[in-house]
Write a structure and sequence with these properties.
The longest helix is centred in the middle third of the chain and has 30 residues, at 29-58. The protein has 67 residues and is an all-alpha fold. The chain starts with a helix and ends in a 9-residue tail after the last helix. It has 2 helices and no strands. The chain has one domain. It has helices at 5-25, 29-58. α1 packs antiparallel against α2.
Length: 67
């Protein structure tokens, strides 16, 4: 499934905001664990994207060379 670029770019931040809201508004363990998982997922996605961009730049690939 392909997402529009603005949606694709913003999704990790949405996950982290939703996780923070879940932690802040929840009094149950399930809500806190869910919020922590959402925040963790957002961080992991951002790190994976950064690592991929670093890998491409170290290989000397431009945006048009990617497929």
């Amino acid at each position: 499934m392909w997402w529009l670029k603005p949606i694709y770019t913003v999704m990790p931040f949405v996950y982290m905001i939703a996780g923070g809201a879940s932690i802040a508004s929840s009094e149950s363990t399930v809500g806190i664990v869910s919020g922590t998982l959402l925040i963790s997922a957002g961080i992991v996605i951002l790190q994976m994207r950064r690592d991929y961009k670093d890998q491409l730049s170290s290989a000397g690939m431009t945006k048009s060379q990617r497929s």
